[in-house]
Design brief:
Layout lengths: L2 H11 L2 E2 H9 L11 H13 L3 E8 L2 E9 L1 H10 L12 H7 L6 H34 L10 H31 L8 H8 L13
Helix pairs in contact: 1-3, 1-4, 2-3, 6-7
């Protein structure tokens, strides 16, 4: 799966400008699927347009430059379906928090506590973002034509899936934070001051203690 597939998936839900696609793919509800940098979106859109997978139209704005609005074509939808036929690759998960967790014994209790608090706030923020998506979808479904083709129940399923993963992680962290904090500092490296003190202490000669 690549950036072009991501752009097609976004446009399959609605027409959008390049800026809106970039925003959705890096910060919005599509940011969890493909690693897309800011600089990769427009080259992908240009390639999709050249291959007749999307179209682009200009939309005038009072007092502003015209906007370019991208739309997926029938050929683009077929390409999207074709690109999703293969079994997906293994999910890639990276976490700086877990790096701190596995080295907690070398870190001060304060550092570990701050990392846990930060991780909890981040999880809550991501859950809140999904809740907003679900609330918006619920509101839209209550005020739209039942025949509206733009409703995406499968996307709501994916949102609930993501929310459940985050909530379980948050639950585990809240219930087990004390055990991680208990590891903190159990193998902490000596500070420079402690090293200097140890370096300035000469071993006691054996004769001074009556040793042979």
């Amino acid at each position: 799966m690549n950036v072009k597939t991501l752009c097609l998936a976004i446009l399959n839900t609605q027409d959008a400008t390049g800026y809106e696609i970039r925003k959705q793919s890096t910060e919005g509800k599509f940011c969890h699927f493909v690693d897309a940098s800011y600089g990769s979106i427009y080259p992908a859109l240009n390639k999709l347009e050249a291959d007749d997978l999307v179209t682009c139209r200009s939309e005038t704005q009072p007092g502003k430059p015209a906007r370019k609005i991208y739309s997926i074509t029938v050929k683009g939808r077929k390409e999207l379906v074709a690109s999703l036929q293969d079994t997906p690759s293994r999910d890639i998960f990276r976490s700086e928090f877990l790096m701190i967790a596995i080295t907690a014994d070398m870190l001060s209790p304060l550092v570990v506590e701050k990392a846990i608090d930060s991780q909890i706030e981040q999880l809550k923020s991501e859950i809140n973002m999904i809740d907003q998506i679900l609330d918006h979808a619920k509101h839209a479904s209550e005020h739209c034509d039942p025949s509206d083709k733009k409703k995406h129940p499968a996307m709501l399923w994916a949102a609930h899936y993501g929310k459940n993963c985050l909530e379980q992680t948050l639950k585990y962290l809240n219930e087990n934070r004390e055990s991680l904090q208990a590891y903190a500092g159990t193998n902490e490296l000596p500070t420079n001051e402690q090293k200097d003190e140890n370096a300035g202490t000469s071993p006691t000669p054996a004769f001074a203690t009556g040793g042979q």
